[in-house]
Amino acid sequence: MDFESYYLDLFEMLNALCKKIASGKYSRSDTDGLFELTKKNRYPGLFAELSESFAMMMVKVEAREFELEQTIEALKTANSKLESRSQTLAQEVSERTNELKDKNIQLEKEIQQRRQEEEKRLELEKFKAVAETIGGVCHELNQPLQLISGNAELLMSDMSESHPDLKRIHNIREQVDKLGAVTKKLMRISRFVTKDYTKDSKIIDIDASI
After folding, report:
1. How many domains, in total, are found in the chain?
2. Closest CA to 137 of 208, 178, 203, 186
3. 126 part of a folded domain
4. Are 179 and 147 in contact (CB under 8 A)?
5. Which residues contact 48 (CB under 8 A, 6 or more apart)?
6. Which residues contact 208 (CB under 8 A, 6 or more apart)?
7. How much is the CA Rg of the chain, to the nearest whole Å?
8. Distance of CA 189 to the CA centre of its chain
9. Which domain holds residue 195?
10. Crossing angle between the packed helical segments 3-23 and 28-36, to the nearest 10 degrees
């Protein structure tokens, strides 16, 4: 038996298997063939040990590849979950932002409404204060106006139509009546409407305020 040719054939077989395995293009039969060469009862001990070393290396590489694939798969799963969570968070943030915007708009409306209500309340209080003042003034004016009007009426009744002061007394009576009409209008005021009086001031429009 030509041992040199025999060993050469074995090493060529081992070399061919290792190259296929190293390239990653190998089948189950290739791995079975490599493990077959590790049998010491069929092949020389040194050769079988060498084959066993290569087989163990292949097992470790495959184990690492499997572990790497598992790690990659776990990373993909984690990344998918992270993306899903990120989208959920983005949606929650968007919804929360819109909710806060709506609440802010509602708050601004409430603030504006309360401001308007406060302005109305202050305006009403101011109106009540002025109305009370007007009422007091009118009350104080009515008594002397009634007295003047009554005295003028008495004087006119004692005068002849040719009396030189009759016309003056009559004019006094007319002006007093006008003042009385103004006080009646003032007592009927229910709101404040102003009109221009001078360039820099306004006065109450009595007729429009009734």
Report:
1. 1
2. 186
3. yes
4. no
5. 37, 38, 39, 40, 42
6. 193, 195
7. 58
8. 46
9. 86-209
10. 140
**Tokens describing residue 98:** 């819109």
Any domain includes 36: no
How far the first Cα of the chain sits from its last, in Å, is 138
Residue 203 has phi, psi (to 5 degrees) of -130, 165
Domain membership of residue 75 (yes or no) is no
Please state, in angstroms and rounded to a whole number, the distance separating the CA atoms of residues 201 and 17: 111
**Residue 54: CB atoms within 10 Å:** 19
Helix (H) or strand (E) holding 142: helix 45-158
Residue 94 is encoded by which pair of tokens? Answer: 């968007």
Q: Give the residue among 9, 16, 46 at the shortest CA–CA distance from 34.
A: 16
Q: How far apart are CA 146 and CA 66, in angstroms?
A: 117
Fill in the amino acid letter for 103: K
Tokens 């009396």 locate to 163
Contact 79, 65 (CB under 8 A): no
- Each residue's pLDDT expressed in tens, for the chain with a length of 210 residues: 567 788 788 888 888 888 888 887 888 888 888 888 888 888 888 888 898 888 898 888 888 888 999 999 999 999 999 999 999 999 999 999 999 999 999 999 999 999 999 998 998 888 888 888 888 888 888 889 989 988 988 888 888 888 888 889 999 989 999 998 888 888 888 877 888 888 778 888 888 877
8 within some domain: no
CB count, 10 Å around CB of 91?
10
